[in-house]
Amino acid sequence: MELLVDLFGYLSIVVHGLTILSQSMALGGVLFLIFLARPLAPALGRAGQGIVAGTARIAGYAALALVASEAATVALQAAVLIETVDLSLGNVLSAEFAVAGLVKTAAAVSMAFVLLSWKDRAPVFGLLALSVIELAAATLTTHAAARLDGREALLAVEGLHQLGAAIWIGGIPCFLLTLARIRDGAAFRLVGSRFSRMSMVGVICILVSGVTMSVVYIGDLAGFYGTAFGVMVGAKIVMFLMLLALGGGNFLLVERLRRNPATPVNRLRRFAEVEFGIGIAIFFAAASLTSVPPSVDLTRDRVSWHEIVVRNTPEWPRLSSPSHDDLALPALQAQLDAEAAAKKAAPQVAFTPGAGDLPPRNADDIAWSEYNHHWAGLIVVLVGLLALLNRAGVGWARHWPLAFLGLAVFLFFRSDPETWPMGDIGFLDSFRDVEVLQHRFFVLLIVAFTYFEWRVRATNWNNQWAKLVFPLLCAAGGTMLLTHSHAIANVKDQLLIELTHTPLALAGIAAGWGRWLEIRLNPRENPIAWRVAGWVWPVCILFCGLLLLGYREA
Ligand code: HEM
Protein backbone atom coordinates (compact mmCIF):
# COMPACT_ATOMS: atom_id res chain seq x y z
CA MET A 1 0.00 0.00 0.00
CA GLU A 2 2.86 2.40 0.85
CA LEU A 3 4.34 1.80 -2.61
CA LEU A 4 0.98 2.73 -4.16
CA VAL A 5 0.94 6.03 -2.24
CA ASP A 6 4.55 6.65 -3.36
CA LEU A 7 3.82 6.17 -7.03
CA PHE A 8 0.29 7.61 -6.92
CA GLY A 9 1.03 10.93 -8.63
CA TYR A 10 2.68 9.37 -11.67
CA LEU A 11 0.40 6.31 -11.83
CA SER A 12 -2.73 8.46 -11.81
CA ILE A 13 -1.46 10.45 -14.83
CA VAL A 14 -0.68 7.27 -16.78
CA VAL A 15 -4.05 5.67 -15.90
CA HIS A 16 -5.85 8.93 -16.76
CA GLY A 17 -4.09 9.01 -20.14
CA LEU A 18 -5.31 5.46 -20.82
CA THR A 19 -8.82 6.47 -19.69
CA ILE A 20 -8.92 9.41 -22.12
CA LEU A 21 -7.60 7.14 -24.92
CA SER A 22 -10.19 4.37 -24.34
CA GLN A 23 -13.00 6.93 -23.85
CA SER A 24 -12.12 8.67 -27.12
CA MET A 25 -11.94 5.34 -29.03
CA ALA A 26 -15.27 4.14 -27.55
CA LEU A 27 -17.16 7.38 -28.26
CA GLY A 28 -15.32 7.90 -31.56
CA GLY A 29 -16.18 4.33 -32.59
CA VAL A 30 -19.88 4.82 -31.77
CA LEU A 31 -20.00 8.05 -33.81
CA PHE A 32 -18.08 6.39 -36.69
CA LEU A 33 -20.59 3.52 -36.62
CA ILE A 34 -23.61 5.84 -36.68
CA PHE A 35 -22.40 8.55 -39.08
CA LEU A 36 -20.12 6.64 -41.45
CA ALA A 37 -19.97 2.82 -41.30
CA ARG A 38 -23.71 2.16 -41.22
CA PRO A 39 -24.90 4.82 -43.71
CA LEU A 40 -22.11 4.01 -46.21
CA ALA A 41 -22.21 0.19 -45.84
CA PRO A 42 -24.65 -0.34 -48.75
CA ALA A 43 -22.38 1.71 -51.06
CA LEU A 44 -19.26 -0.24 -50.00
CA GLY A 45 -20.52 -3.56 -51.32
CA ARG A 46 -19.43 -6.85 -49.67
CA ALA A 47 -16.94 -4.98 -47.43
CA GLY A 48 -19.79 -2.91 -45.93
CA GLN A 49 -21.10 -5.38 -43.37
CA GLY A 50 -17.59 -6.39 -42.29
CA ILE A 51 -16.76 -2.72 -41.70
CA VAL A 52 -19.90 -2.18 -39.56
CA ALA A 53 -19.17 -5.30 -37.49
CA GLY A 54 -15.46 -4.39 -37.16
CA THR A 55 -16.30 -0.83 -36.06
CA ALA A 56 -18.76 -2.14 -33.43
CA ARG A 57 -16.04 -4.50 -32.19
CA ILE A 58 -13.41 -1.73 -31.87
CA ALA A 59 -15.86 0.55 -30.04
CA GLY A 60 -17.01 -2.34 -27.82
CA TYR A 61 -13.49 -3.37 -26.74
CA ALA A 62 -12.54 0.30 -26.24
CA ALA A 63 -15.58 0.61 -23.93
CA LEU A 64 -14.32 -2.46 -22.02
CA ALA A 65 -10.88 -0.83 -21.73
CA LEU A 66 -12.63 2.29 -20.43
CA VAL A 67 -14.37 0.19 -17.77
CA ALA A 68 -10.98 -1.17 -16.64
CA SER A 69 -9.13 2.18 -16.65
CA GLU A 70 -11.95 4.13 -15.01
CA ALA A 71 -12.40 1.43 -12.33
CA ALA A 72 -8.62 1.56 -11.75
CA THR A 73 -8.78 5.36 -11.45
CA VAL A 74 -11.56 5.25 -8.82
CA ALA A 75 -9.86 2.38 -6.94
CA LEU A 76 -6.48 4.13 -6.95
CA GLN A 77 -7.86 7.46 -5.72
CA ALA A 78 -10.09 5.76 -3.12
CA ALA A 79 -7.24 3.58 -1.80
CA VAL A 80 -4.88 6.54 -1.44
CA LEU A 81 -7.56 8.71 0.21
CA ILE A 82 -8.44 5.95 2.71
CA GLU A 83 -4.70 5.36 3.43
CA THR A 84 -3.63 9.00 3.73
CA VAL A 85 -6.73 10.83 5.02
CA ASP A 86 -8.26 7.89 6.94
CA LEU A 87 -11.70 8.31 5.30
CA SER A 88 -14.21 5.43 5.25
CA LEU A 89 -14.93 3.69 1.95
CA GLY A 90 -18.52 4.96 2.11
CA ASN A 91 -17.34 8.54 2.47
CA VAL A 92 -14.90 8.21 -0.40
CA LEU A 93 -17.38 6.58 -2.77
CA SER A 94 -19.94 9.32 -2.14
CA ALA A 95 -17.44 11.98 -3.23
CA GLU A 96 -18.18 13.66 -6.61
CA PHE A 97 -15.13 12.19 -8.39
CA ALA A 98 -16.12 8.66 -7.30
CA VAL A 99 -19.80 9.07 -8.27
CA ALA A 100 -18.74 10.49 -11.65
CA GLY A 101 -16.30 7.59 -12.03
CA LEU A 102 -18.92 4.99 -11.17
CA VAL A 103 -21.42 6.55 -13.64
CA LYS A 104 -18.71 6.53 -16.35
CA THR A 105 -17.96 2.88 -15.58
CA ALA A 106 -21.65 1.89 -15.67
CA ALA A 107 -22.19 3.74 -18.97
CA ALA A 108 -19.09 2.08 -20.45
CA VAL A 109 -20.23 -1.41 -19.28
CA SER A 110 -23.63 -0.85 -20.94
CA MET A 111 -21.97 0.49 -24.11
CA ALA A 112 -19.66 -2.54 -24.31
CA PHE A 113 -22.56 -4.92 -23.76
CA VAL A 114 -24.74 -3.29 -26.43
CA LEU A 115 -21.91 -3.09 -28.99
CA LEU A 116 -20.42 -6.56 -28.45
CA SER A 117 -23.73 -8.41 -28.18
CA TRP A 118 -25.82 -6.59 -30.79
CA LYS A 119 -22.87 -5.65 -33.00
CA ASP A 120 -24.21 -4.15 -36.27
CA ARG A 121 -27.79 -4.09 -34.93
CA ALA A 122 -26.89 -2.02 -31.82
CA PRO A 123 -29.65 0.62 -31.27
CA VAL A 124 -28.54 4.13 -32.33
CA PHE A 125 -30.43 6.12 -29.66
CA GLY A 126 -29.32 3.74 -26.91
CA LEU A 127 -25.70 4.20 -27.95
CA LEU A 128 -26.04 7.99 -28.24
CA ALA A 129 -27.74 8.21 -24.82
CA LEU A 130 -24.97 6.14 -23.19
CA SER A 131 -22.33 8.30 -24.93
CA VAL A 132 -23.91 11.51 -23.60
CA ILE A 133 -24.05 10.07 -20.06
CA GLU A 134 -20.40 8.93 -20.29
CA LEU A 135 -19.21 12.30 -21.62
CA ALA A 136 -21.21 14.30 -19.05
CA ALA A 137 -19.74 12.23 -16.21
CA ALA A 138 -16.25 12.66 -17.70
CA THR A 139 -16.50 16.45 -17.47
CA LEU A 140 -17.14 16.16 -13.73
CA THR A 141 -13.51 15.07 -13.17
CA THR A 142 -12.06 18.09 -15.00
CA HIS A 143 -10.97 21.45 -13.61
CA ALA A 144 -14.36 22.89 -14.62
CA ALA A 145 -16.05 20.89 -11.85
CA ALA A 146 -14.08 22.84 -9.22
CA ARG A 147 -14.83 26.31 -10.67
CA LEU A 148 -17.29 28.54 -8.86
CA ASP A 149 -17.95 31.02 -11.69
CA GLY A 150 -19.56 29.78 -14.90
CA ARG A 151 -19.26 26.15 -13.81
CA GLU A 152 -22.04 24.78 -16.02
CA ALA A 153 -20.83 26.64 -19.13
CA LEU A 154 -17.26 25.44 -18.52
CA LEU A 155 -18.46 21.86 -18.05
CA ALA A 156 -20.17 22.13 -21.43
CA VAL A 157 -16.96 23.49 -23.00
CA GLU A 158 -14.95 20.59 -21.50
CA GLY A 159 -17.57 18.19 -22.88
CA LEU A 160 -17.27 19.78 -26.34
CA HIS A 161 -13.49 19.42 -26.16
CA GLN A 162 -13.57 15.75 -25.28
CA LEU A 163 -16.27 15.16 -27.93
CA GLY A 164 -13.99 16.76 -30.54
CA ALA A 165 -11.13 14.51 -29.41
CA ALA A 166 -13.39 11.46 -29.76
CA ILE A 167 -14.75 12.34 -33.23
CA TRP A 168 -11.30 13.05 -34.69
CA ILE A 169 -8.61 11.03 -32.89
CA GLY A 170 -10.95 8.43 -31.39
CA GLY A 171 -12.44 7.65 -34.82
CA ILE A 172 -9.09 6.98 -36.54
CA PRO A 173 -8.75 3.25 -35.61
CA CYS A 174 -12.16 2.59 -37.25
CA PHE A 175 -11.08 4.71 -40.25
CA LEU A 176 -7.90 2.59 -40.61
CA LEU A 177 -9.95 -0.62 -40.33
CA THR A 178 -12.27 0.67 -43.07
CA LEU A 179 -9.39 1.67 -45.38
CA ALA A 180 -7.90 -1.80 -44.97
CA ARG A 181 -11.19 -3.40 -46.06
CA ILE A 182 -12.01 -1.38 -49.20
CA ARG A 183 -10.32 -1.66 -52.57
CA ASP A 184 -11.60 0.78 -55.21
CA GLY A 185 -11.04 4.51 -55.64
CA ALA A 186 -14.74 5.38 -55.43
CA ALA A 187 -15.00 3.67 -52.02
CA PHE A 188 -11.85 5.43 -50.81
CA ARG A 189 -13.26 8.78 -51.95
CA LEU A 190 -16.62 8.09 -50.25
CA VAL A 191 -15.08 7.05 -46.93
CA GLY A 192 -12.26 9.59 -47.08
CA SER A 193 -14.50 12.59 -47.71
CA ARG A 194 -17.04 11.53 -45.03
CA PHE A 195 -14.32 11.05 -42.40
CA SER A 196 -12.63 14.30 -43.47
CA ARG A 197 -15.86 16.16 -42.81
CA MET A 198 -16.33 14.42 -39.46
CA SER A 199 -12.73 15.27 -38.50
CA MET A 200 -13.33 18.91 -39.39
CA VAL A 201 -16.25 18.97 -36.95
CA GLY A 202 -13.88 17.46 -34.37
CA VAL A 203 -11.20 20.07 -35.12
CA ILE A 204 -13.72 22.92 -34.73
CA CYS A 205 -14.99 21.49 -31.42
CA ILE A 206 -11.42 21.16 -30.11
CA LEU A 207 -10.33 24.59 -31.30
CA VAL A 208 -13.34 26.55 -30.01
CA SER A 209 -13.30 24.79 -26.62
CA GLY A 210 -9.50 24.74 -26.39
CA VAL A 211 -9.24 28.49 -26.96
CA THR A 212 -12.10 29.14 -24.53
CA MET A 213 -10.51 27.01 -21.82
CA SER A 214 -7.11 28.62 -22.46
CA VAL A 215 -8.62 32.08 -21.95
CA VAL A 216 -10.40 30.96 -18.76
CA TYR A 217 -7.66 28.75 -17.24
CA ILE A 218 -4.49 30.50 -18.52
CA GLY A 219 -5.64 34.09 -18.87
CA ASP A 220 -2.57 35.76 -20.39
CA LEU A 221 0.77 35.15 -22.10
CA ALA A 222 2.66 35.10 -18.79
CA GLY A 223 0.34 32.27 -17.71
CA PHE A 224 1.38 30.36 -20.84
CA TYR A 225 5.17 30.37 -20.35
CA GLY A 226 5.21 30.95 -16.59
CA THR A 227 3.20 27.94 -15.35
CA ALA A 228 3.27 24.16 -15.88
CA PHE A 229 -0.39 24.26 -17.04
CA GLY A 230 0.40 26.88 -19.69
CA VAL A 231 3.50 25.04 -20.93
CA MET A 232 1.55 21.79 -21.29
CA VAL A 233 -1.26 23.50 -23.24
CA GLY A 234 1.49 25.01 -25.40
CA ALA A 235 2.81 21.49 -26.08
CA LYS A 236 -0.72 20.42 -27.02
CA ILE A 237 -1.06 23.34 -29.45
CA VAL A 238 2.23 22.38 -31.17
CA MET A 239 1.03 18.77 -31.57
CA PHE A 240 -2.39 20.05 -32.70
CA LEU A 241 -0.64 21.96 -35.50
CA MET A 242 1.27 18.78 -36.49
CA LEU A 243 -2.09 16.99 -36.68
CA LEU A 244 -3.63 19.78 -38.75
CA ALA A 245 -0.77 19.48 -41.27
CA LEU A 246 -1.32 15.71 -41.58
CA GLY A 247 -5.12 16.08 -41.67
CA GLY A 248 -4.74 18.81 -44.30
CA GLY A 249 -2.52 16.49 -46.36
CA ASN A 250 -5.19 13.79 -46.25
CA PHE A 251 -7.94 16.27 -47.12
CA LEU A 252 -6.00 17.24 -50.28
CA LEU A 253 -5.53 13.58 -51.17
CA VAL A 254 -9.28 12.94 -50.87
CA GLU A 255 -9.90 15.95 -53.14
CA ARG A 256 -7.43 14.42 -55.65
CA LEU A 257 -9.35 11.11 -55.39
CA ARG A 258 -12.51 13.04 -56.31
CA ARG A 259 -10.83 14.08 -59.58
CA ASN A 260 -8.95 10.81 -60.17
CA PRO A 261 -10.18 7.61 -58.45
CA ALA A 262 -6.88 5.91 -59.40
CA THR A 263 -4.92 8.15 -57.00
CA PRO A 264 -2.71 5.95 -54.74
CA VAL A 265 -4.14 5.95 -51.19
CA ASN A 266 -1.24 4.57 -49.14
CA ARG A 267 -0.52 8.07 -47.78
CA LEU A 268 -4.09 8.34 -46.49
CA ARG A 269 -3.45 5.37 -44.21
CA ARG A 270 0.07 6.33 -43.17
CA PHE A 271 -0.85 9.91 -42.25
CA ALA A 272 -3.85 8.58 -40.29
CA GLU A 273 -1.58 6.16 -38.38
CA VAL A 274 0.69 9.07 -37.38
CA GLU A 275 -2.30 11.29 -36.51
CA PHE A 276 -3.44 8.59 -34.09
CA GLY A 277 0.06 8.25 -32.60
CA ILE A 278 0.41 12.00 -32.01
CA GLY A 279 -3.19 12.05 -30.74
CA ILE A 280 -2.22 9.54 -28.03
CA ALA A 281 0.65 11.85 -26.99
CA ILE A 282 -1.87 14.71 -26.72
CA PHE A 283 -4.08 12.52 -24.50
CA PHE A 284 -1.17 11.98 -22.09
CA ALA A 285 -0.38 15.70 -22.16
CA ALA A 286 -4.07 16.36 -21.35
CA ALA A 287 -3.89 13.81 -18.52
CA SER A 288 -0.89 15.57 -16.97
CA LEU A 289 -2.73 18.89 -17.40
CA THR A 290 -5.42 17.72 -15.01
CA SER A 291 -2.78 17.04 -12.34
CA VAL A 292 -1.58 20.67 -12.15
CA PRO A 293 -3.52 23.80 -11.11
CA PRO A 294 -4.83 26.10 -13.88
CA SER A 295 -2.43 29.04 -14.45
CA VAL A 296 -4.98 31.56 -13.15
CA ASP A 297 -4.88 29.82 -9.76
CA LEU A 298 -1.06 30.02 -9.60
CA THR A 299 -0.45 33.73 -9.04
CA ARG A 300 2.84 33.24 -7.15
CA ASP A 301 5.82 30.98 -8.03
CA ARG A 302 5.41 31.82 -11.70
CA VAL A 303 8.50 31.89 -13.90
CA SER A 304 9.16 35.27 -15.53
CA TRP A 305 10.28 35.72 -19.14
CA HIS A 306 13.55 37.15 -17.83
CA GLU A 307 14.21 34.00 -15.76
CA ILE A 308 13.56 31.87 -18.85
CA VAL A 309 15.98 33.96 -20.94
CA VAL A 310 18.68 33.83 -18.23
CA ARG A 311 18.29 30.06 -17.77
CA ASN A 312 18.40 29.40 -21.51
CA THR A 313 21.24 31.76 -22.42
CA PRO A 314 23.82 29.41 -23.96
CA GLU A 315 26.87 28.63 -21.82
CA TRP A 316 29.83 26.32 -22.40
CA PRO A 317 28.70 22.80 -21.45
CA ARG A 318 29.82 21.28 -18.16
CA LEU A 319 32.17 18.44 -19.17
CA SER A 320 33.79 17.73 -15.81
CA SER A 321 31.82 16.11 -13.01
CA PRO A 322 31.74 16.95 -9.30
CA SER A 323 32.87 14.10 -7.04
CA HIS A 324 30.12 11.69 -5.95
CA ASP A 325 31.07 12.16 -2.27
CA ASP A 326 30.35 15.91 -2.51
CA LEU A 327 26.73 15.32 -3.51
CA ALA A 328 24.20 16.30 -0.80
CA LEU A 329 22.99 12.78 0.01
CA PRO A 330 26.31 10.90 0.19
CA ALA A 331 27.71 13.87 2.19
CA LEU A 332 24.76 13.78 4.62
CA GLN A 333 25.04 9.97 4.95
CA ALA A 334 28.76 10.23 5.66
CA GLN A 335 28.04 12.85 8.34
CA LEU A 336 25.32 10.67 9.94
CA ASP A 337 27.64 7.65 9.82
CA ALA A 338 30.41 9.64 11.55
CA GLU A 339 28.02 10.92 14.24
CA ALA A 340 26.70 7.37 14.85
CA ALA A 341 30.25 5.98 15.01
CA ALA A 342 31.13 8.63 17.61
CA LYS A 343 28.09 7.59 19.65
CA LYS A 344 28.68 3.83 18.89
CA ALA A 345 25.04 3.84 17.68
CA ALA A 346 23.44 2.40 14.55
CA PRO A 347 23.76 4.92 11.70
CA GLN A 348 20.58 6.69 10.56
CA VAL A 349 19.55 6.41 6.90
CA ALA A 350 19.81 9.85 5.27
CA PHE A 351 17.01 9.28 2.75
CA THR A 352 14.35 6.62 2.14
CA PRO A 353 12.89 6.64 -1.40
CA GLY A 354 9.10 6.98 -1.47
CA ALA A 355 8.89 8.15 2.14
CA GLY A 356 7.37 11.38 0.86
CA ASP A 357 10.44 13.56 1.59
CA LEU A 358 12.45 15.06 -1.22
CA PRO A 359 16.14 14.13 -1.36
CA PRO A 360 18.51 16.96 -0.24
CA ARG A 361 20.24 18.81 -3.09
CA ASN A 362 23.25 21.08 -3.17
CA ALA A 363 25.18 22.91 -5.90
CA ASP A 364 27.12 19.71 -6.70
CA ASP A 365 23.88 17.84 -7.34
CA ILE A 366 22.94 20.52 -9.86
CA ALA A 367 26.41 20.30 -11.46
CA TRP A 368 26.15 16.49 -11.55
CA SER A 369 22.79 16.67 -13.34
CA GLU A 370 23.99 19.32 -15.79
CA TYR A 371 27.10 17.21 -16.53
CA ASN A 372 24.80 14.23 -17.24
CA HIS A 373 22.56 16.22 -19.57
CA HIS A 374 25.54 17.78 -21.41
CA TRP A 375 27.33 14.48 -22.05
CA ALA A 376 24.00 12.93 -23.04
CA GLY A 377 23.60 15.92 -25.37
CA LEU A 378 27.01 15.31 -26.97
CA ILE A 379 26.13 11.65 -27.58
CA VAL A 380 22.73 12.53 -29.07
CA VAL A 381 24.30 15.26 -31.29
CA LEU A 382 26.76 12.61 -32.52
CA VAL A 383 23.85 10.22 -33.26
CA GLY A 384 21.99 12.98 -35.12
CA LEU A 385 25.04 13.91 -37.22
CA LEU A 386 25.81 10.26 -38.05
CA ALA A 387 22.17 9.61 -38.96
CA LEU A 388 22.25 12.66 -41.27
CA LEU A 389 25.51 11.42 -42.83
CA ASN A 390 23.95 8.01 -43.33
CA ARG A 391 20.86 9.69 -44.85
CA ALA A 392 23.25 11.54 -47.20
CA GLY A 393 24.70 8.18 -48.30
CA VAL A 394 27.74 7.60 -46.03
CA GLY A 395 27.73 3.80 -45.56
CA TRP A 396 29.76 3.35 -42.33
CA ALA A 397 27.52 5.89 -40.58
CA ARG A 398 24.75 3.24 -40.60
CA HIS A 399 26.15 2.02 -37.26
CA TRP A 400 24.89 5.25 -35.59
CA PRO A 401 22.44 3.41 -33.27
CA LEU A 402 25.41 1.92 -31.36
CA ALA A 403 26.20 5.37 -29.94
CA PHE A 404 22.85 5.18 -28.12
CA LEU A 405 24.17 2.15 -26.23
CA GLY A 406 26.83 4.40 -24.74
CA LEU A 407 24.08 6.77 -23.66
CA ALA A 408 22.11 3.94 -22.00
CA VAL A 409 25.14 2.77 -19.99
CA PHE A 410 25.98 6.38 -19.06
CA LEU A 411 22.42 7.07 -17.83
CA PHE A 412 22.20 3.75 -15.96
CA PHE A 413 25.23 4.62 -13.88
CA ARG A 414 24.79 8.34 -13.45
CA SER A 415 21.11 9.43 -13.64
CA ASP A 416 20.37 8.58 -9.98
CA PRO A 417 23.67 8.82 -8.05
CA GLU A 418 21.98 8.05 -4.68
CA THR A 419 20.98 4.56 -5.87
CA TRP A 420 22.83 1.33 -6.82
CA PRO A 421 25.35 1.00 -8.44
CA MET A 422 26.89 4.35 -7.30
CA GLY A 423 24.77 5.09 -4.19
CA ASP A 424 23.68 3.40 -0.95
CA ILE A 425 20.03 2.84 -1.91
CA GLY A 426 19.46 -0.71 -3.13
CA PHE A 427 18.40 -1.51 -6.71
CA LEU A 428 14.90 -2.74 -5.77
CA ASP A 429 14.32 -0.06 -3.12
CA SER A 430 15.14 2.63 -5.67
CA PHE A 431 12.01 1.80 -7.68
CA ARG A 432 9.88 3.41 -4.95
CA ASP A 433 11.09 6.74 -6.35
CA VAL A 434 9.05 7.72 -9.45
CA GLU A 435 11.96 9.62 -10.98
CA VAL A 436 14.27 6.58 -10.71
CA LEU A 437 11.51 4.37 -12.11
CA GLN A 438 11.18 6.67 -15.15
CA HIS A 439 14.95 6.91 -15.67
CA ARG A 440 15.25 3.10 -15.63
CA PHE A 441 12.34 2.89 -18.08
CA PHE A 442 14.15 5.29 -20.44
CA VAL A 443 17.39 3.25 -20.21
CA LEU A 444 15.48 0.07 -21.16
CA LEU A 445 13.78 1.93 -24.00
CA ILE A 446 17.13 3.13 -25.40
CA VAL A 447 18.68 -0.36 -25.20
CA ALA A 448 15.64 -1.90 -26.95
CA PHE A 449 15.48 0.55 -29.85
CA THR A 450 19.27 0.51 -30.26
CA TYR A 451 19.24 -3.28 -30.70
CA PHE A 452 16.42 -3.23 -33.28
CA GLU A 453 17.54 -0.16 -35.26
CA TRP A 454 21.18 -1.29 -35.44
CA ARG A 455 20.19 -4.78 -36.64
CA VAL A 456 17.80 -3.26 -39.22
CA ARG A 457 20.50 -0.89 -40.51
CA ALA A 458 23.77 -2.75 -40.13
CA THR A 459 22.71 -6.38 -40.67
CA ASN A 460 19.94 -5.74 -43.24
CA TRP A 461 17.38 -7.37 -40.99
CA ASN A 462 14.49 -7.08 -43.43
CA ASN A 463 11.66 -7.63 -40.95
CA GLN A 464 8.85 -5.07 -41.41
CA TRP A 465 7.87 -5.17 -37.73
CA ALA A 466 11.45 -4.94 -36.43
CA LYS A 467 11.86 -1.74 -38.48
CA LEU A 468 8.96 -0.15 -36.60
CA VAL A 469 10.40 -0.73 -33.11
CA PHE A 470 12.76 2.28 -33.14
CA PRO A 471 10.12 4.81 -34.31
CA LEU A 472 7.52 3.44 -31.89
CA LEU A 473 9.83 3.45 -28.85
CA CYS A 474 11.18 6.88 -29.80
CA ALA A 475 7.62 8.27 -29.93
CA ALA A 476 6.73 6.43 -26.69
CA GLY A 477 9.79 7.91 -24.98
CA GLY A 478 8.79 11.41 -26.09
CA THR A 479 5.22 10.85 -24.92
CA MET A 480 6.37 9.57 -21.49
CA LEU A 481 8.76 12.55 -21.19
CA LEU A 482 5.68 14.81 -21.42
CA THR A 483 4.47 13.26 -18.14
CA HIS A 484 7.97 13.18 -16.56
CA SER A 485 8.25 15.08 -13.26
CA HIS A 486 11.25 16.03 -11.07
CA ALA A 487 11.34 15.63 -7.26
CA ILE A 488 12.28 19.25 -6.66
CA ALA A 489 10.68 21.37 -3.96
CA ASN A 490 10.93 24.67 -5.79
CA VAL A 491 7.97 25.00 -8.22
CA LYS A 492 9.84 27.54 -10.35
CA ASP A 493 12.93 25.34 -10.71
CA GLN A 494 10.68 22.44 -11.63
CA LEU A 495 9.04 24.50 -14.38
CA LEU A 496 12.36 25.84 -15.70
CA ILE A 497 13.47 22.22 -16.11
CA GLU A 498 10.14 21.31 -17.74
CA LEU A 499 10.69 24.16 -20.20
CA THR A 500 13.69 22.18 -21.55
CA HIS A 501 12.04 18.76 -21.33
CA THR A 502 8.84 19.73 -23.17
CA PRO A 503 10.53 20.66 -26.49
CA LEU A 504 12.74 17.57 -26.02
CA ALA A 505 9.58 15.44 -25.72
CA LEU A 506 7.99 17.09 -28.78
CA ALA A 507 11.18 16.54 -30.83
CA GLY A 508 11.24 12.88 -29.71
CA ILE A 509 7.61 12.44 -30.78
CA ALA A 510 8.30 14.11 -34.16
CA ALA A 511 11.45 11.98 -34.67
CA GLY A 512 9.55 8.75 -33.95
CA TRP A 513 6.66 9.48 -36.26
CA GLY A 514 8.97 10.96 -38.93
CA ARG A 515 10.92 7.67 -39.06
CA TRP A 516 7.59 5.74 -39.04
CA LEU A 517 6.44 7.66 -42.15
CA GLU A 518 9.80 7.12 -43.90
CA ILE A 519 9.35 3.36 -43.41
CA ARG A 520 5.62 3.16 -44.18
CA LEU A 521 5.28 5.62 -47.10
CA ASN A 522 5.88 4.39 -50.66
CA PRO A 523 8.71 6.57 -52.06
CA ARG A 524 7.46 6.11 -55.62
CA GLU A 525 3.88 7.21 -54.82
CA ASN A 526 4.78 10.02 -52.36
CA PRO A 527 8.39 11.04 -53.09
CA ILE A 528 8.11 14.48 -51.40
CA ALA A 529 6.42 13.30 -48.20
CA TRP A 530 8.84 10.36 -48.02
CA ARG A 531 11.91 12.60 -48.48
CA VAL A 532 10.68 15.17 -45.94
CA ALA A 533 9.99 12.42 -43.38
CA GLY A 534 13.49 10.99 -44.00
CA TRP A 535 15.13 14.30 -43.07
CA VAL A 536 12.74 15.28 -40.22
CA TRP A 537 13.76 12.55 -37.75
CA PRO A 538 17.58 12.90 -37.86
CA VAL A 539 17.17 16.69 -37.60
CA CYS A 540 14.87 16.19 -34.58
CA ILE A 541 17.45 13.90 -32.95
CA LEU A 542 20.14 16.54 -33.56
CA PHE A 543 17.81 19.18 -32.04
CA CYS A 544 17.33 16.96 -28.96
CA GLY A 545 21.10 16.80 -28.56
CA LEU A 546 21.46 20.58 -28.79
CA LEU A 547 18.64 21.05 -26.25
CA LEU A 548 20.41 18.69 -23.83
CA LEU A 549 23.67 20.60 -24.35
CA GLY A 550 21.88 23.82 -23.34
CA TYR A 551 20.21 22.24 -20.31
CA ARG A 552 20.80 24.09 -17.02
CA GLU A 553 19.40 23.75 -13.52
CA ALA A 554 20.66 27.01 -12.06
C1 HEM B 1 -6.11 17.09 -31.21
C2 HEM B 1 -5.97 17.99 -30.34
C3 HEM B 1 -6.46 17.91 -28.91
C4 HEM B 1 -6.96 16.86 -28.21
C5 HEM B 1 -7.15 15.45 -28.70
C6 HEM B 1 -7.26 17.33 -26.87
C7 HEM B 1 -7.79 16.53 -25.86
C8 HEM B 1 -8.02 16.97 -24.57
C9 HEM B 1 -8.66 16.17 -23.54
C10 HEM B 1 -9.17 14.77 -23.73
C11 HEM B 1 -8.72 16.93 -22.40
C12 HEM B 1 -9.40 16.60 -21.09
C13 HEM B 1 -8.54 16.01 -20.13
C14 HEM B 1 -9.34 15.71 -18.87
O1 HEM B 1 -9.68 16.64 -18.17
O2 HEM B 1 -9.61 14.55 -18.63
C15 HEM B 1 -8.10 18.19 -22.72
C16 HEM B 1 -7.95 19.19 -21.83
C17 HEM B 1 -7.57 20.44 -22.22
N1 HEM B 1 -7.26 20.89 -23.50
FE1 HEM B 1 -7.12 19.78 -25.13
N2 HEM B 1 -6.95 18.65 -26.78
C18 HEM B 1 -6.45 19.04 -28.00
C19 HEM B 1 -6.05 20.27 -28.37
C20 HEM B 1 -6.12 21.35 -27.55
C21 HEM B 1 -5.81 22.69 -27.97
C22 HEM B 1 -5.38 23.08 -29.38
C23 HEM B 1 -5.98 23.49 -26.88
C24 HEM B 1 -5.79 24.96 -26.73
C25 HEM B 1 -5.96 25.81 -27.69
C26 HEM B 1 -6.38 22.62 -25.76
C27 HEM B 1 -6.64 23.04 -24.47
C28 HEM B 1 -6.97 22.21 -23.43
C29 HEM B 1 -7.13 22.66 -22.04
C30 HEM B 1 -6.91 24.07 -21.52
C31 HEM B 1 -7.48 21.53 -21.28
C32 HEM B 1 -7.61 21.43 -19.76
C33 HEM B 1 -8.94 21.27 -19.26
C34 HEM B 1 -8.86 21.03 -17.75
O3 HEM B 1 -7.81 21.19 -17.17
O4 HEM B 1 -9.89 20.69 -17.19
N3 HEM B 1 -6.47 21.34 -26.21
N4 HEM B 1 -7.69 18.19 -24.05
Task: Please provide a written account of the structure.
The two termini are 36 Å apart. This protein is an all-alpha fold and 554 residues long. The chain is built from 20 helices and no strands. The model has no long low-confidence stretch (mean pLDDT 92). It is globular and about 85 Å long. 74% of the residues lie in helices and 0% in strands. The protein has 2 domains: 296 residues; 199 residues, no CATH class. Bound molecules: protoporphyrin IX containing FE (HEM). The site of protoporphyrin IX containing FE has 26 residues, from α6, α8, α10 and α11.
Helices, strands, pairings?
Blueprint: H1 2-40, H2 47-85, H3 89-93, H4 96-118, H5 124-139, H6 151-170, H7 172-181, H8 185-217, H9 221-226, H10 228-259, H11 266-289, H12 305-312, H13 328-342, H14 363-391, H15 401-414, H16 434-458, H17 464-467, H18 469-482, H19 491-520, H20 527-549
Helix pairs in contact: 1-2, 1-5, 1-6, 1-7, 1-8, 1-11, 2-4, 2-7, 4-5, 5-6, 6-8, 7-11, 8-10, 10-11, 10-19, 11-18, 11-19, 14-15, 14-20, 15-16, 16-18, 18-19, 19-20
The site of protoporphyrin IX containing FE (HEM) has 26 residues, from helix 6, helix 8, helix 10 and helix 11.
